[in-house]
Amino acid sequence: MLSIPTWLQGAAETTDKKPPAMDYTDPQAYMDAAMHMVEEHGLNVVKAIAIFVIGRWVVKIAVGIIKKLLAKQNVDAALTGFLANILHLAGLAMVLIAVLGTLNVPTASFVAVLGAAVFAVGFALQGSLSNFAAGVMIIFFKPFKIGDFVEGGGASGVILEITVFSTMLRTGDNKKIIVPNAGMTGGNIVNYSARDTRRVDLVFGISYDDDMTKAKAIMQRVCDSDERILKDPAVTIGLIELADSSVNFVCRPWVKSADYWGVYFDLNENMKRAFDDAGINIPYPQRDVHMHEVKAG
């Protein structure tokens, strides 16, 4: 008769029952050892299998619910899929750790290695993760949407597409610009399409010799003749500066955002024609030079 082999000693130490001595020449001894292992660890194995099966099912259901909630919030499909994959992997990792703990397998080293791996990957992809985090903020908080004209990240244009890592814009001269999301959220974002109406700010200068009341009446008449200019709020016309060469007036009508540039260009042209017809001068910059004669002796 021989002593218990080393691969069975761990199981023997976990119980008060001492397994019988094993005879390597007796096949029944192997059966007895196997039965002892089943008696000692069978319940834990069953628990581990149950945790694994139920855990996978719970993770699948939870991820499905989260995906439906994100879909109801009109979250970008690419972002929804990305978040679902991350949550699924994280859930499976937790289930695996629980299974190993049930089987009395030390998990501290496993968790440490997993944490180190996650840290290494995160450090290597910190730029991409920064863009991803910014993309999540853009999609959730929606400072702009597709079709808006915005200024941000050192570029301005119409939003063509928003992804989890970058934002694509089309400039006024039909160029495509791809801006990393971290760049878009790293500074001020000016959304020119966020409101239904905008104010057109124009400055017109007249000569110091011209009639200011007449000039203001002309500016009011030109604005009233343009049907695109809104009646409410009313147009603001006022003297803003007594400049070196001219008396400057501001003209600030309100228009629908879609009509902004059309009114901007037409109002400049129509105002120049109206001033010319009325004999109102728009002076050039000028400077008075005084010359003094110095007589010799």
Notable traits:
297 residues; disordered N terminus; alpha+beta; Helix Hairpins; 5-stranded antiparallel β-sheet; 10 strands; SH3 type barrels; 3 domains; Alpha-Beta Plaits; 8 helices; 3-stranded antiparallel β-sheet
Output the structural class.
alpha+beta
**What is the residue-mean pLDDT, rounded to a whole number?**
80
Silhouette? elongated
Helical amount: 40-55%
Please indicate the count of domains: 3
H/E series, N to C?
A: HHHHHEEEEHEEEHEEEH
Strand-helix topology:
Elements: H1 6-13, H2 27-72, H3 77-102, H4 108-124, H5 126-141, E1 149-152, E2 155-162, E3 166-170, E4 176-180, H6 181-185, E5 190-191, E6 197-199, E7 202-206, H7 212-224, E8 236-242, E9 247-252, E10 254-256, H8 260-278
Antiparallel strand pairs: 1-2, 1-5, 2-3, 3-4, 6-10, 7-9, 8-9
Helix pairs in contact: 2-3, 7-8
Write structural notes for this entry.
This protein has 297 residues and is α+β, with helices and mostly antiparallel strands. It has three domains: 26-124, Helix Hairpins (Orthogonal Bundle), CATH 1.10.287.1260; 143-191, SH3 type barrels, CATH 2.30.30; 197-278, Alpha-Beta Plaits. 51% of the residues lie in helices and 16% in strands. It is built from eight helices and ten strands. It has helices spanning 6-13, 27-72, 77-102, 108-124, 126-141, 181-185, 212-224, 260-278; strands spanning 149-152, 155-162, 166-170, 176-180, 190-191, 197-199, 202-206, 236-242, 247-252, 254-256. Helix 2 (27-72) packs antiparallel against helix 3.
